[in-house]
Amino acid sequence: MRRLIILTSGALLAGCGQQAALEPPPGESLPPAPYGSAERPDAEDLLELDPQAAPERSVELRRRSEEREDNPFDLPPE
């Protein structure tokens, strides 16, 4: 019985995502256009991340295990 309640509540929770386009709440408006810009960004433009907010990985991952070098700062606790 308890499993049924948990599964049912999980299914109901998973189905409550909204699939409609984003719009500001009634009575509100989008932020004004940035200084120097002629057009005002829409909701989709405001949701895009800056490159600094989500940078791409710039290091290559290791493909196989390698021996670690000795670390002089890796001291045991006192």
Helix content: 10-25%
Number of strands: 0
Structural class comes to: mainly alpha
Order of SSEs, N→C?
HH
Mean pLDDT over all positions:
80
Largest sheet: none
Rg over C-alpha atoms, rounded to the nearest angstrom? 25 Å
Per DSSP, the total helix count is 2
Secondary-structure topology with pairs:
Blueprint: H1 2-14, H2 43-47
Region (Disordered): 19-78
Biased composition (Pro residues): 23-34
Biased composition (Basic and acidic residues): 57-71
Task: Please describe what this structure looks like.
The protein has 78 residues and is an all-alpha fold. The chain is built from 2 helices and no strands. It has helices at residues 2-14, 43-47. The longest helix has 13 residues, at 2-14. Residues 57-71 have a biased composition (Basic and acidic residues). Residues 19-78 are annotated as: Disordered. Residues 23-34 have a biased composition (Pro residues).
